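Training component of the fellowship. As part of building independent skills, the fellow (R.M.) carried out the full modelling exercise for a liganded target. The chosen ligand was hexanoyl-coenzyme A. The inputs are recorded below so that the supervisory panel can assess the work.
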Amino acid sequence: MSIRTKSMDLRKRVLTASQGGGQKAIAKQIAMGKLTARERILALLDPDSFHEYDLFVEHAGKDFDMDKKHLPGDGVVTGTGTVNGYPICIFAQDFTVAGGSLGYAHAKKITKIMDHAMKMKVPLIGINDSGGARIQEGVNSLAGYGEIFYRNTLASGVIPQISVILGPCAGGAVYSPALTDFVFVVDNISKMFITGPEVIKTVLGEEISMEELGGARVHAETTGNAHFFANNEFECFAQIKNLFSYIPWNNSKKAERFESEKPKKTYKISSFFPTDPKEPYDIRNIIRSIADNSDFFEVQELFAPNIVIGFSRIEGDTVGFVANQPMVLAGVLDVDSSDKAARFIRFCDAFNIPLITLVDLPGYLPGVDQEHAGVIRHGAKLLYAYSEATVAKVTIILRKAYGGGYIAMSSRHLRADFVFAWPTAEIAVMGPEGAANIIFKSEIMAAENPEEMRLKKVQEYKDKFANPYVAAAYGHVDAVIDPSETRSFISHALDVSVQKTVNHPFKKHGIPPF
Ligand code: HXC
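Fellow's submitted model of the complex:
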């Protein structure tokens, strides 16, 4: 055969192999409002950058007549490419081929591209659209998942790992996304659950739809398994590209540096920060008033909104913001907000992203529900994450910083490098009302007019402690600054922290309160 003939033969083979599960299955995929695996990759990656590997891999199933079936690419497309010019490794499960179910060869393709991502130290993107373990292949499918989970764990903190749920992600399969750094979901398309509606009906006799059980909204709002929610696949891909602009390729690099831009003129701290200390406000407006071009890329926006986390830039460099949200539950810490912030802090720390913490909270959320849900254990994660983080840590106390909340929110005592307070800061063991009621109890009770005395004592406590100057006098706060100086203080603090090094005691690893 001449080279020309062989090339034609190759083209024919590639064309056949890349047709997925055939026209009927593709039509079903389209009818469900979903793109195909290859369309997704092409829509997400930079034009002409995708290089596919293992297209001709054959499945390994022998039982239940599987040996008579041909499953193109064994239901998964793998390869390398670029996003915003970044090199990445990617796999996309192809639901049109045996429901994207994971058999031995399918898993081998995924683990091969994962190994590649680790060797080359580039991010890994996994697009999940699968019925789970291929039932006909039994234990080999389970083995495949185990191999993936192991690699997800080893890669954690070395390369960014991104999971995109664009279809079912059923059974144990959910644990790969759960082990990765960021999970993207799309309304009406993503479905994640350990046991599906059928099993729930059989075992518990309860009827529930897939959407109600583990749809995109459920994971974005309630479980916190998802970090980004989109209305369609294209919006989801735009979110992924945006995320990549803020994070580095791997843990030995810094995120790309951009041109420095001042915050937009419409964002001024003074127009968003209320004069009444009890009035709520949206902390995201304060972040935008500090950040380059007022850009803030929020993470887990819909989950535990009493804390706000996300990426911005200061003078062109990526920073991670962690901020109490006075607009929701007065910005208290609770089980979910502690989990949310702790994981984000660990991501930023692993990938050399400085942390900016904005503090305004009355403390931890009181109540039996929280105590019994383990607020002690979950709350401890936040303290652990801040204490362990060695990236530059800058803290600004805006208003309330009471009790455990003061300590937990990147205080000097957990080794914040710089702690600044606005003149409106109130740093105390607890709020003036509660404090006065306890320490002046007998005086209040003995007074002719107890209510008058109570108010007097509350004011006395406020005058003494509800300000930043006591903390500043002890050096727990480095500087009391005017709110308008916040950006320049942060920017300078980051500049002088560029060479920051911290030597923690040697250990195999810590034992965080998982
Ligand atoms: C083999 C599967 C499959 C699977 C789907 N298919 N899931 N084949 N193993 N797990 C096949 C179907 O037989 C069908 O093949 C094609 O994929 C499309 O599936 P449909 O059911 O027609 O599609 P749809 O109606 O959209 O329903 C999708 C679904 C459903 C909701 C995902 O297929 C489903 O419930 N599958 C099982 C999900 C599940 O329980 N998985 C957990 C497995 S155990 P044909 O040839 O007819 O087109 C597990 C444990 C892992 O994952 C543990 C790791 C620790």
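The panel noted the following from the submitted structure. The CA atoms of residues 42 and 67 lie 31 Å apart. The pocket of hexanoyl-coenzyme A is lined by residues 98-99, 101, 131-135, 142, 145, 168, 170-173, 196 (CB under 6 Å).
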